[in-house]
Amino acid sequence: MTLIPVEYHGVHTVGPEQFSCVLLRWAEQNRILPIWLSPISAADIDVRDSGYTPRRPGSQDIMSDLITRMTSGVSGVNIISHFEGVFIASIVFNDGEEVDARPSDAIKLARALEVDLKVEEDVLQQASFFVSDDVLEEYFDLRFGADARESGEAELSASGDAQADADFEEMMRSLGMSEADFFDEDSPGGPDTGGDNDTGVTKDDNGEK
């Protein structure tokens, strides 16, 4: 298993239905991995990102406190598997023990413990996709890499990379969306997050609809 560190770039809402996801970035390949979240999980992560500290400890506070007090510590928080929109995460302890986790809980814990989040390379190859710098800036207020192309430069595709565009389109189809659904606020549709499901688009943590 090859685990690759990914960059965390916050909670974002997508499309007219305002579906929520965390964006993770595979920096070496400039590819984005969306992890779809339930509204509750998205709100919890987002409010903590803004600097809010609850008056009483939440589940992630209790979990991180118990890990600090009662275990040898955490050596890794990883997303290790992906199948039909369902992501599986794991928490690895310093003594080698490993426990299963939902991606939303894994992301919360990684941020609480200030541990790098890593994703299995095969998962990144299957589920991440290329988005051009201009699209990332316009829709997510994110900017990476070189400056935008000079005005008048010839373009072969929306991103300048026909294969990347094909990968992106395939990713959108796997989420039950078209590219227009993802970016056009006037277009209907979006991923079916299955209510409180935050591990996949159409299925819950156990792969059941």
TrEMBL record:
Residues 3-131 form the BFN domain. Signal peptide: none annotated. It comes from the Bacteria. Residues 188-200 have a biased composition (Low complexity). InterPro entries: BFN_sf, Bi_nuclease_dom. Gene3D superfamilies: Bifunctional nuclease domain. Residues 177-209 are annotated as: Disordered. SUPFAM superfamilies: Hypothetical protein TM0160. This is Bifunctional nuclease family protein. The lineage of its organism: Bacteria, Bacillati, Actinomycetota, Actinomycetes, Mycobacteriales.
